[in-house]
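pinned: reference chain
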Amino acid sequence: MTKRATPPVSPLPVWAGGLGTLALCFLILPLAFMLGRIDWGSLGSTLSTDEATSALALSLRTCLIALGVDLILGIPAALLLARPWRGVRAARILVALPLSLPPVVAGIALLAAFGRRSPLGALLSGAGLDIAFTTTAVVIAQVFVSLPFLIVTLEAALRAREQGLDEMASSLGASPSRVFWQITLPTVLPGLGRGAALALARCLGEFGATLTFAGSLQGVTRTMPLQIYLARESDADLALALGVVLLGLAALVVALTETPWGCIASLLRSALSATRPGRESGSPAAGATTDEVSRARRDDGLVPLQEGETEGTEPAGIPVRVCGTVAARGWDADVTLRPGLVTAVVGHNGAGKSTLAQVVAGTLRLDSGAAHIGERVVDDASTFVPARRRRVAMVSQAPRIFTHMSVLANVAFPLRVRGVGRARARAAALRQMRAVGIADLAHKRGSDLSGGQAARVAIARALVFRPEVLILDEPTAALDVEATAQVSAVLRERLAGAGITTLLVSHDIAEVLTLASHMIVMGEGRIVEEGEPASVLASPASVFAARLAGLNIVTGPVLWRSGMAGVRVGEGTLWAAELSGLGLNDADRADAMRGDGTELAAPSRVTRVALTFPPEAVALSREEAHASPRSVLPGVVKGIDVDGSLVSVRVALAEDVGVTARVTASAWADLGLGVGSGLWVSVKATQVRVIRMVARR
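pinned: its structure tokens
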């Protein structure tokens, strides 16, 4: 049998090993000596006494009831504390406070709340409910001291798990309750089990609060810890015997916290899978029914036909319009997504791309304005349709696969939450998986996928219920080159002719050109330009689009001269004759015409600009050239990149200004220059465009 590889362990300091061993010995030795004093031969008869059996039965009964109450109250409390809200830190402190209280103080607090002399206790007593010094008091004491263990442990598990899973499930159509039972709870089961075990162990060992609040009445409130305390002087053998039983129960309960439940579940799944007939890992419909297999092979459509559709029909797509503001983010835009087409939204970080995606998806509400999906208003002053009811699917760079489910269950999830039958949902999921090339992964766990596989699962899951709108939020940003190419090809194939209105948020110009038919450039929460991707990149009107197009960009305060705009570069000036991107009014044109090459004493509305020009527009020479209108500037070669017959030369014109020139290899060889050489750069003013710079808030 092959041994399982173990990860390397860093060496432990000698002093840490010694002190750690001493700590373990300190904890183990008292228990070992206690076990050594037990008369094992008479243990059975000692435990069969009325006092022992009564205390043991009462402890087990009250502990199980208390654990049930802990689960009913503790799980919702942990969910509440795991969310961000005002005052949550104070609430966490209050919940953990009973962990640090002496048990007797906890009992006094319970007496003050539920005792006969307290207002609440008197009210309950008047209703015929006396709590103090009853079995109910034992349960309440155990819940009070054990509940924080469950809440704190489960809350930590909720905060440590992968974020965004609940939001993803909700966007796929799941109700809040369904999200809890099918997504939230399964992903924190180890934490829940650990917290429940710790709470149960605390219940078994509870003594001080029980004695103070419930008293010590045999068969009513005398639990095992109380019986041990009373028997330690009158009947030492009984005290030791009960102590051993309590120690064994506690050890069993605490051992549950270290049980590898995930491994056990995986082994059980593997064993069950091995007993299923007709299952082959390489089959596209592995583990599916014969009916599912036949339907998957017969129909490669997106989903089962919707009501009113006929075979072979394709949805026409619906328009999306968002016109509104999000004040906290300085976002104020009017965006239209064309029906059935892919619209790419690009811009620098913080430009407002993700805000647009969140508004469309329903995870962010507009402060003013309205959002429409087709004819339906989904967000305005009086209406807000939550994400789960919008039929909007999202695929992001974090695929957010439900790791506790199989791939098949992941893809079928949006259909199942919409009430589609299990067999029909599985058949549709298999068709979609075949379409994106992951049918052989049908019964693989979500936690076992590579990045590229997870991305394709996310695409299949998003498309399987035929959404009205698809949001692709940088879907390939976290993938390597090979996986990016595969996922882009899958997207291109699945979106071609699908009639799904798609919003693509991307920084990858190749991805935009491959998938999008329309491009919007955003800046500072507003649209700065839009059009067909090729047209925008050919004549960019924004700095970001110019950067995407690979153009040289030089920015600075504007200078005017004879109808041209310029920017100071070192001791010279770079001039542009193409001013159409500025939107000049009459006053601006007058400034441009009367400028003498210096900054104006009374500057016009246009104060700062970016000059853009392609690398091919840059000419290099060893001597200063004289031509008009042309900018001629001195520079130093900083780098050379050769790509076939072309050479890209990086030239520093000033301390913080550089440009790239692209020349043929033969032309560069004729210059006879290298890195560090001085040269002259000339750019025709007619090939330089001007973009107005918008001051960032």
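why pinned: The two ends are 65 Å apart (CA to CA). The mean pLDDT is 82.
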